[in-house]
Amino acid sequence: MIDTKEQAYCPMPALSQVSFPGLPKIQVNKRERSNAAATVAPRASSRINFLILAGTFLLMFAAVFLVYKLQPLFAKVQLERLSTPWGKAFIVVSLSLLGLRIAFLLYLFLLSLRYRSVSSVANELLPTCTVIVPAYNEGELVFQTLMSLANSDYPEGKMQIIAIDDGSGDDTRAWMKKAKGILGDRLSIYQQLENKGKRQALHRGFMLATGEVLVTVDSDSIVEENTLRNMVSPFVTNAKCGAVAGNVRVLNNKKGIIPKMLNVSFAFSFEFIRSAQSVLGSVFCTPGALAAYRKDVVLACLPQWINQTFMGKPSDIGEDRAMTNMILKQGYHVLFQRNAYVLTNIPEKYKTLTKMLIRWERSNVRESIMMSKFAFGQFREGNKAGTRVLLLDQWSKLILSCPMVLLMLFFILTQPLLFFSASLSGILVFSSIPMLFYARRYHVGESLWAYTYSIFCTFSLFWITPYSIATVARSGWLTRSLPGKK
User: Fold this and answer.
1) Is the CA virtual torsion 417, 418, 423, 424 positive or negative?
2) Cα–Cα distance for residue pair 107/294, rounded to 1 Å
3) Are 317 and 476 in contact (CB under 8 A)?
4) Would you put residue 197 in left (φ > 0), alpha (ψ -120 to 50) or beta?
5) Banded pLDDT at 42 (limits 50, 70, 90)
6) Could you tell me how far CA 443 lies from the centroid of its own chain?
7) Residues 364 and 398: beta-carbon distance below 8 Å
8) What residues form DSSP beta bridges with 28?
9) CA angle (423 as vertex; 74, 453 as ends), nearest 5
10) How does pLDDT run across 279-317, given as a tens digit for each residue?
11) Rounded to an integer, what distance in angstroms lies between the CA atom of residue 131 and that of residue 161?
12) pLDDT at 358
């Protein structure tokens, strides 16, 4: 239908094959999912990667050496601090925050040990499912997304696919029509005559959906063959489940240093942090790249969600986090499925990356405020302490971001050598956590990018959170522009 009215290796099976009718098969290696593109990087790129990693470790080991050699100077500074009330308070606060951070990481680690993915249920138990793909200036990528969905190991009679062109100015609609020509009645495509925003496109999809479970997939994302059935199965096995977050990995990680770094960061964020949150039934965000919702739960909060405002303005960002909050508020659990993989494109340039992160962080600030309004009340039956601890950790990061940036600038101006040597040494220690996590599950060599990403974040992205807090009332997608990246 076309209507113009209107996001050591662990043991795994060897390969998951994503086949598109009329196209050659694309093989996605589960053991090295980040190699989904299956292309060999040019030698020049490999040399650059080696030099960057070598430089990363040279910096960190040089910092450790400086910390050792500058011990007398570190001791002198500490004694000077201890001689003043402000200095003593600084040391006490610093050590307390460090202790709390270590305790929180240990808490997440213990929770993550209890995590288990829900195995897929039998075909006859799977509910009807509607997959909604909103697209804006996505070009050929939307075709690849739709074909990967059609290739899913999900009963064809139980799956409805809806694609919505949100007023694109490129050839997105043409690629949707090409998919329609191949898939026929399995795919329905609709068009917004003007760009109304992702939230409006999703709302239209929700209203058109006939499935008992609603799945949203970004139009630049590729799902694996068993992803949909793994996403939907928790709704069958757990009556309290209101939403499920998928496992997001980077599709274009062979195309730049930033995707390589974020691939490791995503693995840690989803498979460690969201695993821990899932044990508490309180995953904070169902990502736009891949999320699933119980339809009646969505319909219960849909009017509030589509009409949501912040500081008197319509909310046009953070639709995924907002929906998650409203489902948690209804008393339902939000879970994470580690075995439901989606490969998604992420920014390759620094400027585009910062725009994406600013949008995410503004949403985080807004929705943390919204969540605080119900999380400390009786929003669900059973234990709520874990959810509140997770929220308090979110607030601690937000509240401390501005003071930390000011302290960072102060130390750079007053004690630059001590600051950089101590910071890089700390990165060597703390970045070993995500590095070891990634190395154990995927690839030792790729895990080393965890160190580079930490240095990159510390010295290039430190301003994102304070800036997002200061500009939290601003709207706009920031990265929506031709030729094709949201």
Assistant:
1) positive
2) 29
3) yes
4) left
5) low
6) 20
7) yes
8) 16
9) 170
10) 999 999 999 999 999 999 999 999 999 999 999 899 989
11) 5
12) 96
Whether the CA torsion 456, 427, 93, 409 is positive or negative: it is negative
In whole angstroms, what is the distance from residue 465 CA to residue 124 CA?
47
The widest CA-to-CA distance across the chain, in whole angstroms, is: 77
Ordered strands of the 2-3 beta sheet: 2-3, 187-192, 159-166, 129-135, 213-217, 290-294, 241-250, 333-344, 221-223
Token pair of 145, please? 């997304």
Q: Where do the DSSP E strands lie in 69-186?
A: 129-135, 159-166
Q: What is the pLDDT of residue 481?
A: 54
The model carries a pTM of 0.87
Count of CB atoms within 10 A of residue 93's CB?
A: 11
Alpha helices in 114-190 (DSSP H): 140-150, 172-183
Local structure of 240: helix, strand or coil: coil
E strand spans, 167-240: 187-192, 213-217, 221-223
Structure tokens at 429: 């220690």
Question: Which structure tokens are listed for 31?
Answer: 């053991």
Structural contact between residues 269 and 358, judged by C-beta atoms closer than 8 angstroms: no
pLDDT tens by residue, 213-263 = 999 999 999 999 999 999 999 999 999 999 999 999 999 988 889 999 999
The letter for the amino acid at 141 is: L
φ, ψ of residue 342 to 5 degrees: the values are -135, 135
